[in-house]
Specification:
Length: 474
């Protein structure tokens, strides 16, 4: 587990806080180093600058404010400056509290910049904590949340309603009253939009507000309760994203356009269910609330039943449970491998202008439209083209060609992985020879963490790639 930040400053950075309650950073005199907490929301979009004292602090005569001024002065007088990137719990609160922080990589400070009542610092790069301190990092769990959730039983492998739910659950439950559950199409693999499967999970429905606030994907281990009361692990789905209202409505619109919604209603009626309830339930605001990539589904081995001593035996509700509080070995070890996948590959149609019909997922389309509007403001005299030769957006000026590759995944690490190969081909393949110097920009929905910034910087330094990352939110 990640240590609290007071211990992190003291034990990892060897820079104990002067006061655990009000200190905003620490100074190490014998090494002439300053470590400051930096809020991720105060970073510039390009990540090259951070605001470290802003107008809301003016007139603040607290000890933390006075100490921050001393630390800034020390940096101006030649002290090495480093930033610990923090995520605030609530930016609307009068006093910001730390929700999470980066404990593997530090921001490296450059010069101090004073602009009117605010003070900024230039970010010149990153440095790993172990490289700076000469100590190995403590073991920590993956940042990706791992959760368990129960799904309603389905004897047709969750491809269509099976009629089982109405006989297996409490008479007052949605499934029992209506003869179906929204999860029954979970693994309908042919229903995908640009490689994404849009579906419903009751566990995500109950934790929706929390998942949306976190803006992070989760790994979900699914289990079900069979008619014989045996509990069975179904699958592990990695990097599951929760849909906001706009995403859910856009995805449903595509489902209706393609006729999938009509098929869902017909399949409900075929098992004697109440088709009119689909999309009209106060218990579920949307019939689609998550999305995931098909390659991230890891089916459980047949007969992978929950053992009598497994804590999962006591979990009855359709909600998200923390894996680490249950039995992570039983729940996930046999689920995190490709071996044994039974889902057949699906060839999807591509609806791209300039070649043949790629139907982009709605998130991609929103990001592309917003990026296009931003670029028209930034490059009023440039030629801006969408979807030419599969390139999401290209900007041609008199001096350079800028290529943008958009990926709508929440996790920046996944965005980089998905986009990098494509954008390198667009720029450097012999069949795509470019006459102007090329700049490559990967576009994602969320900010880079310091670790991912370090990755981009490494690609710059070791391979001289003209690569950048840009955030376009939806």
């Amino acid at each position: 587990m990640k240590m609290n930040q007071t211990d992190f400053f003291s034990k990892r950075l060897h820079a104990p806080l002067l006061n655990n309650q009000w200190s905003w950073g620490a100074f190490v005199p014998h090494k002439n180093r300053v470590f400051l907490r930096v809020w991720d929301s105060q970073m510039s979009k390009d990540g090259n600058q951070a605001e470290i004292l802003w107008p809301r602090n003016v007139g603040n005569h607290s000890n933390g404010y006075a100490e921050r001024l001393e630390h800034i002065e020390a940096i101006e007088n030649g002290a090495q400056g480093f930033g610990v990137l923090c995520q605030p719990l609530d930016t609307t609160a009068r006093v910001w509290k730390i929700k999470d922080y980066e404990d593997q990589v530090l921001l490296r400070f450059g010069s101090i910049i004073r602009k009117q009542k605010s003070i900024y610092v230039k970010i010149t790069g990153q440095m790993s904590v172990s490289d700076l301190t000469g100590t190995a990092p403590t073991l920590r769990e993956d940042n990706l949340n791992q959760k368990l959730t129960r799904i309603s039983y389905n004897s047709r492998n969750w491809r269509q309603p099976s009629g089982d739910a109405k006989n297996l659950e409490n008479a007052t439950s949605y499934n029992s009253r209506n003869g179906f559950g929204h999860e029954e199409w979970l693994f309908r693999s042919e229903w995908q939009i640009d490689g994404w499967r849009y579906a419903f999970l009751e566990g995500a429905n109950k934790s929706r507000r929390r998942l949306l606030a976190a803006q992070k994907p989760v790994d979900l281990t699914l289990f079900t309760v069979q008619p014989d009361k045996k509990r069975r692990y179904v699958a592990n789905i990695q990097e599951v994203e929760c849909l906001n209202d706009s995403q859910a409505k856009s995805a449903l619109k595509i489902f209706k356009k393609k006729g999938w919604f009509k098929i869902m209603k017909a399949e409900i009626a075929a098992v004697g269910g109440n088709a009119a309830a689909l999309g009209n339930s106060p218990e579920a605001k949307h019939i689609l609330n998550v999305r995931f990539r098909l390659e991230n589904i890891y089916p459980s081995k047949p007969g992978n039943f929950v053992q009598p001593n497994d804590p999962v035996m006591s979990l009855n509700r359709y909600q998200l449970y923390d894996v680490e509080k249950q039995n992570p070995k039983t729940a996930t070890d046999s689920l995190r491998h490709r071996k044994g996948i039974k889902l057949a590959p699906v060839v999807r149609k591509l609806f791209r202008r300039a070649i043949a019909p790629v139907e982009c997922n709605p998130e991609h389309a929103h990001m592309q439209a917003r990026l296009f509007a931003e670029l028209k403001q930034e490059f009023p005299a440039a030629k801006i083209v969408l979807e030419k030769d599969f390139i999401d957006v290209s900007v041609r000026t008199n001096t350079e060609l800028i290529l943008y590759e958009i990926k709508s995944d929440l996790e920046p690490r996944v965005v980089i992985r998905q986009a990098l190969g494509q954008i390198l081909e667009y720029a450097f393949h012999p069949h795509r020879a470019q006459k102007l110097p090329v700049r490559l920009i990967i576009v994602g929905r969320c900010r880079l963490s310091p670790t991912e910034r370090l990755y981009i910087e490494t690609l710059h330094q070791q391979f001289s790639l003209p690569l950048e990352y840009r955030v376009v939110s939806i």
